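Render this sequence as a predicted structure.
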Amino acid sequence: MSMPRSTDTILDRTRTREVTAVFHSRRALDDAAQDLLLSGFDRSDIDISASPDEVQRRLNYAVIPPADLADTPTAPRQPFFGADDLLGVEAVASSVLGCIAAVGSALFLIIKGYEAMAVAMWSILIGIFTGAVVIVPIYRLLRRERVRGLEPAAEWDGLLIWVRVRAPEKEAQAQEILMRHGGQAVHVHEIDLEKRPEDLPLHSLRPDPWLGDERLGRP
């Protein structure tokens, strides 16, 4: 008997009410999301559509109009991160890795018996160099859609945004903001959201590369 695939495993199901819209410009979507945040909406209540390749993979390459995809429970989503958020993450990540490299090199030089001035100078230089080097892969990871040239295709197909709302006045406010920034097919729906293993952070991480996707403890 074959094991269920990861996409067949449902961890949680929640009924929620949302305002959704379609955008054909990433800048307009970002502006709308930032306006929502400034108007008091919580960042955790704002989702946007995943990258085009992830959408196609999760939907088994079915062609679904964006307005209909917004009402599809299995449509892959991701949290909203604006340009400023990504810059902050890149700066923090590169700074932390640079500091780790600086501290590690300082300890190594102290063990080797270098003088304090030389230890300080070399550790600072190594930290700066490491931070500058690692910023490139971090940038490519966080902005992979732009790096891979997928952003124009995503804009052409239609970018989706979902805003969870818990009061009628919030529904009206979210709709007004989305329409003001050029959102199309703006509407309110109730939907059963399913959380699956691939929606969890680091779901694709394999501690042992020799292990497959089968569950452990099975004969």
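Summary. Residues 83-111 form the longest helix (29 residues). The two ends are 11 Å apart (CA to CA).
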